[in-house]
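Thread: Newbie trying to understand structure tokens

Hi all, I'm a second-year student working on a class project, and my supervisor (Dr. K.) asked me to get a predicted structure for one chain before our next meeting. I've only ever worked with sequences, so writing a 3D structure as a token string is new to me. If someone could post the tokens and maybe explain what I'm looking at, I'd be very grateful. Here's the chain:
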Amino acid sequence: MTRLVRSSERRLGVVSIALALAIVLVPAVVGTKSAEAQTFKVLYTFTNGADGGEPYAGLIRDAKGNLYGTTSSGGTHAAGTVFKIDKTGKETVLYSFTGPGKDGAFPIGGVILDAGGNLYGTTLDGGTGVCYVGNRDVGCGVVFMVHKSGKETVLYSFSNTPDGATPEAGLVRDAGGNLYGMTFSGGSSTDGTVFKLNKAGKETVLHSFTGDPDGSAPFDGLVRDKDGNLYGVTELGGNSNAGTVLKLDNTGTETVLYSFTGAPDGAYPGYGYLWRDAAADLYGATLEGGAYGYGTVFKLDKTGKETVLYSFTGTGGDGLWPSAGVVQDVKGNLYGTTYLGGASGYGTIFKVDKTGKETVLHSFAYETDGEFPVCDLLLDAKGNLYGTATYGGSDGYGTVFELTP
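---
Reply by user tm_fold:
Sure, no problem. This is what the structure looks like when written as tokens:
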């Protein structure tokens, strides 16, 4: 069995460092940057009991305004949940994972919704495959479906080689019901894979990463265009081992659109989805690098030219270490989160406008509203933003929030 190293373990390590740094950074950032007029509301606070705890992923929203997501811990078996929050803030656990075993455990990625109300996602542990992580045997992860009735079905269990292992990202689904995603580890070179899962449950490895030059350790999910091309990022690998932006066409051919170098262009973009606009330009964020080393918001045009739209400074309240992607509104403004910095040091929600000006829309304060948001934001047609904070809130196990204009 191959020893695997998970991006979630690295992220947890960085969050632990963040706990210490937050106190140190507060004096440097308090009161030096004002936010736009926004209304922030905590929709739900997790207790890490039957209701779940420690949500990493972002949310999806149905036509009725219900929100759906996952927690990485908690539930009746302490192995994570799939949950729903209605418009009144009532939380319903749709499924509680049972732990290492056939049904999966510890979902880090979010879920997607089909027209019939069924939810699809991945877990980084569990399933019938066996992998070796941190001196112990664990499952290699699964792709699952939670039926509208609440019944869970494992659509596929990973086995490490050659099909991949520890999928930490969400999925994308085409009109034919095929699912596409990435595994953080495994594959022919143990650097992760891009996979397709058809309706019959047959998995096809579309690409196995090799590290250099094509990338390694893809953490987050894929974006699919109308022609069936897939776009994503890897946390590591590329020419400088600082991550890549990739394209996989509908024949399975991978192209590295950009390799990050660290400074000034950014490093480690692997924690967030890409946003693709109507002009085929791609937008995202890097966890580190940039002019000050604290991460960037970037644009990659269709010629492969990268532009840093904003470099986080770690001072003045602007935040640091954006650990997710960005979403774009109809005016071209970009919105995202940093899991450190802001007025209290516990992370921010930010906006970067078309001129490159950054505005902090909300600074997290731990006990009241959450801390360390690591999710991609959800933007609705009215401009409301929805997301999760992994920790904090009144019980310390994370929150679901709404930010309205």
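A couple of things are worth pointing out once you decode it. Confidence is low (pLDDT under 50) at residues 1-33. The chain is about 5% helix and 35% strand. Feel free to ask follow-ups in this thread.
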